[in-house]
Amino acid sequence: MKRILHIMVGLSALFLASCKKELSDNFTTYTNHPLNDTVWVKNLLSTHSVNDLFDLLHPKELLVDSFNAINGGKLFFGDSLELEFKPNSLAGPGSSGTPLGNVRVELLPLRRKGDFVRVFKPTTTADGSLLETGGGFFIRVSKEGNELRLVTDSTFRIKFHDIDTAKADMQAFYGREAIPVPPKGIDTVFSWIRDFNTAFLPTWTKLSNNPLVPSYYGYELVSKNLRWVTASRYIDSSLPRVKVTAILSPNFTNKNTAVFIVVDGRKIIVNCKGDYASRSFFAKNIPLRSKIKLISLSKIGNDLYWDEKEINSVTLTTSYKLSPEKKSLKDILKELDEL
After folding, report:
1. Contact at 8 Å (CB) between 88 and 67?
2. Residue 184, exposed/middle/buried by CB under 10 A (0-12, 13-18, 19+)?
3. Which of 66, 184, 240, 245 lies deepest, with the highest CB count within 10 Å?
4. What are φ and ψ of residue 34, in 5° steps?
């Protein structure tokens, strides 16, 4: 009888342990903590903490210069980046006249995959088509705090280097933003749209003054728009594609988490949309058998969370589990730089 009792106690302990593990895998409770909020929403609000990620991750340091708007100007940033504006090519809001004196130019380069993640600008079009990019920029010109625009039929030229070898079939794409642009947080309707002029961009090669970088390879782009500009190309549309889904524990919802896919060996960055019905994040049009990395970024309360999963070959079984862990902002920025 005593032996039977010991066996029953042991089985009960095993059963309780397995229940604990199952509960832990599905939902972890934290007393008086925002992690307890497992509610998903159909429409994100600016107050949801996922928007705080944009403000935290967005680069704070811009390249800044100035030139006389009437005379136009050519600006150089190191030996591999230059901008050129034509005379009388800019106007202020509600005006057709050229501003007098110098205007301020702010430039944010997007060279690496992590740069596109930090500004929440995936390389996709409005219909979900994937783009491979050679790099891009945010370019703003202002006078006394007022943002300027290019006058009708005017352009500016930008010459920049790609951290990878330049591709011969890149084209100009511009960022399509919400109207009005959100004053803070993520622009959830942002997408890239190709220039009406679909000619391939000229490429260039230049010897470097930096012994660590023997040569620069890049593009020359004549842009009809300010703000978001990139050199990109559509990926091969004949490749079979699949839907990839990321599943996280219920603590991580579309209110506090963003999930991205980055493709190995190519600058392709895809945002995974939060699916209210299935409580998961997904992206379509991922090339079959491609090597990718799934990353998740979360802000819950005052804490930041990160996870990444490398998939060596995307198959038809495309549901993957992510398990975010608490990380510092410094560590997350380091992870993004290394994507």
Report:
1. no
2. exposed
3. 245
4. -60, -15
Residue 287 CA to chain centroid, in angstroms? 19
Cα separation, 131 vs 168, in Å, equals 15
Mean of pLDDT over the chain: 89
Q: 290 and 216, same structural domain?
A: no
Alpha carbon distance, N-terminus to C-terminus of the chain: 62
Looking only at Cα atoms, what is the longest distance across the chain? 100
Q: How far is C-alpha 269 from the geometric centre of its chain's CA atoms? A: 6
Over residues 146-179, the pLDDT tens digits come to 999 999 999 999 999 998 889 999 999 999 999 9
User: What does 259-328 look like in DSSP terms, one character per residue?
Assistant: EEEEETTS--EEEEEEETTTTEEEEEEEETT--EEEEEEEEETTEEEEEEEEESS--S--EEE---EEE-
- Percent of the chain exceeding pLDDT 90 equals 78
Do 223 and 76 belong to one domain?
yes
Supply 187's token pair.
Answer: 């622009």
Helix (H) or strand (E) holding 56: helix 50-57
Rounded CA-CA distance 6/243 in Å is 50
Q: What SS3 class is residue 50?
A: helix
Answer with the one of 176, 207, 234 that is the final residue of a domain.
234
Q: Contact 267/134 with Cβ under 8 angstroms?
A: yes
Domain of residue 220 covers 59-234
Q: How confident is the model at residue 196 (pLDDT cuts 50, 70, 90)?
A: very high
Q: Which two tokens stand for residue 329?
A: 């902002």
| Predicted confidence (pLDDT) per residue in 311-326, tens digit | 999 988 789 999 999 9
Do residues 201 and 288 share a domain? no
Domain check: are 197 and 289 in the same one?
no
Q: Going by DSSP bridges, is the β-strand pair 257-263/241-247 parallel, antiparallel, or unpaired? A: unpaired
Q: Is the dihedral of CA 250, 253, 258, 261 positive or negative?
A: positive
Examine the fold and report which residue of 207, 234, 261 is the final residue of a domain before the chain moves on: 234
